[in-house]
Predict the 3D structure of the following.
Amino acid sequence: MLTYGGVQATQYPVALYARWFRYVLTFAVPLACVAYYPALAIMGKPDPIGAPAWIGLVSPLTGFVFLLAAIGAWRIGLRHYTSTGS
């Protein structure tokens, strides 16, 4: 689920999912910001779930913000790593 869940979830439009899951895919793990919102902006279509039009233009930036957060978490993990000594 953790490995391929995002791949499977982004195969369908975000509007098909329940509201809470759309929020997870948009804000917690910004998978919808990778393809769904930019595609809507490129095609000039309104979002069927009601997000403003500017979301499609700035949503690729959330990927970079998430990347920076992941790099920070990785560095914290490396700093606190201790080997098993084998």
Observations:
- Residues 54-79 form the longest helix (26 residues).
- The mean pLDDT is 84.
- Residues 5-79 form one domain.
